[in-house]
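Explain this record to help learners:
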Amino acid sequence: MARMARVPSHLPLPSIMPCDLAYLPLDTPLGVFLVAERDGALTGGWFEGQKYFPKISSEAGWRKTGTALLREAQRQLEAYFAGELTRMQIPLAPEGTAFQQQVWRALCEVPCGETTTYAALARAIGRPEAFHPVGAAVGRNPISLFVPCHRALGSNGSLTGYAGGLARKRWLLDHEGRERRLFD
């Protein structure tokens, strides 16, 4: 086995620069929602404390700031919660595998006020037997609300997992179905 060369102690170690990620916490009817962006595209959207909520630190490259893109995300979220906007249009760059990206693109095609199932999403991406992996990809969606994972239901129409919590999922679906309460 080859030995690794040692860096002489008098030489500085190269510094690893953290990635620059701007974020902004926003108040919503469902609690604080954090939006994050990198390089002019939204990379994250999470309810505070939800499953998969990122560890935020300046050492990891996070900086709290209101960039133009994050302010636009705020404007669109406010309009969505006011019932004035049904389709968010903002540059998105969710980070994930090629398969996850396919699933998230398919989710973006589900209109406000409608739902789909994991099986239907699997068919939509040309992988009809992959409904379990599709469900896992939906669950790992890093940009909640903008990539509307709350619109995915179980095959029998039942509410299934939502990283933000089932109460929020129910609220969002009821909000989008303004004419009728979907789940009582």
